[in-house]
Structure formats: structure tokens, C-alpha cells
């Protein structure tokens, strides 16, 4: 059958932290919780301190006697408030979301995903998109206010589609970007343009990247992807392996149709970090691409 569903929830979509939105504007409650609050420090590369594969959460009070102006409120860890802050550098054992994602529990993964995405937005939102005036963080880091007009801006998330193209039978189309080493392949993806539906974006991106027309576009699932602040929206679509592939826009270096047997062998070989000499290497478990490929490969 040409249709399949995801066999498991993508890794970063399993976040289970309590965001406690009602506290973001409650200055008194946040101040009261600050002495016992926890803090996640994140450097410009999205790295955090780790200990035996776990996030290191420090006392928030090390920043001062009350919530710091540049800290962002992430929610609750048990009954304790959790904040994150950007720091220029850190020492000790460090890890980022790509490295740690598969080792973190659902709460920790949610905290780190939210922290990285939110801090990435603040890094580029210092001036209003409306009037160019400097902006100030408000709502515990969940919005920014123009110092000139008072216009409020909120964290931005860029939607991107990611699509597994198959032939309705035993073959799947996988591609490699020019910056990727040989043998590393994945499914196709691209950002949604203004005024465009998700399904239209799927068809356009695949046509632009590999010159292939697809049909029967079906939604699979989604996953936050804070690199820098996106959400990946997964689809499957059907294409014709007999149609020629063209790489007109330069985003794809090569693409090939692979059989289910070849994909299963590649999944058994590991992922992009593997030292295997397999002819095909696939994305790691943190990416929704991995779940999509595994789910398609697992169908009969």
C-alpha cells in the first residue's frame, strides 16, 4: 500500500515540561520562586553543561537576587521554576541538542529545545521589525516591546516542510546536499513561503530541488527544530522513479531512488555518525527524518 504512518512520535515532539504560561506575567510569583529556581546556561552554539549525559541545572540565584532581565522563563521542573540564559562561554563537559537529544528524558528534552529556540529568537530580535527601534524583553522572555511605540512582538517560528517521496511501492527518493559528505542522504525539505499552503510547499520544493512532480501529499507529523527556530512538518508524497531528476537550484548535489531492502540495511548500519563503510548513511534519531524513513522502511 502507498500510505503509511509514523510508527513513533519524533524525539523532540515528546516534550513533557509544564510551560506554566500563567506565570509569565506574574512578576510577584516569579520573584517568590526565584530563590529556589533552576537555571540552564546556553552558549551561542546551543551548548549546555552536562553530567553523565544529563542537563546541569544550576541555582538561578547565581544571577542575582531576583529574575534577571535577560533570562527567559521555561516553566516548571516539579514545583521549581526553570529559567535559561545566554552566556558567552562555558567550561566543563558540554553538549548540544543534536548530541544529547536521544539521551534526555522528555522533560529535559523539552526544556533544552524551548531554551535554544527562544534564545535564538532573542539574539535576532533586538530591534523592532515595525519601526526599527530597540526592543526590550517582557513576559519573562516570551515577547519584546518596542521602546518607541510599545508595539509587542512574539517569538518567531519558521515552518518548514519535510517530505518522504516514495513510488507507492518498494522505492524511496533520498538526496544529499552539497555540504554533506558523500554517502549521507536524507529526505527532502524546505521552508514555507508567504501565502503558501503546506501541501503546495511540498510540491514546489520537490520540483525546485529535484525536478520531480509529486501527488498524493499526506501529512505524517511534526517536530520542533530550533536550528535556529523552526518547526518541521512531515509529509509523504508519491513520485515516478522513471521521471528524470534535475538539480536546478543547487540545493541538492545528488538524489537516487533506493529500495526498501537498501534502506533497511542502512538503518541497521547506524546513522550519519557511524564509522560504517555502508554505501548509504541516514540521519540520526533526533531528526523527524529518521522516524519517517524508519516508518516507511517498516511497512511491507
TrEMBL record:
Q: TM segments?
A: none
Q: Which positions fall inside the Nudix hydrolase domain?
A: 155-280
Please write the reaction equations for the catalytic activity of this protein.
Answer: a 5'-end NAD(+)-phospho-ribonucleoside in mRNA + H2O = a 5'-end phospho-adenosine-phospho-ribonucleoside in mRNA + beta-nicotinamide D-ribonucleotide + 2 H(+)
Give the Enzyme Commission number.
Answer: 3.6.1.22
Molecular function via GO: hydrolase activity
What is the required cofactor set for this protein?
Answer: Mg(2+); Zn(2+)
Instruction: Name the keywords, alphabetized.
Output: Hydrolase, Magnesium, Metal-binding, NAD
Indicate whether Chloroplast appears among the record's keywords.
no
Q: Which PANTHER family match?
A: NAD-CAPPED RNA HYDROLASE NUDT12 (PTHR42904:SF6), NUDIX HYDROLASE, NUDC SUBFAMILY (PTHR42904)
**UniProt record similarity statement:** Belongs to the Nudix hydrolase family. NudC subfamily.
Name assigned to this protein: NAD(+) diphosphatase
List the source organism. Rhodococcus parequi
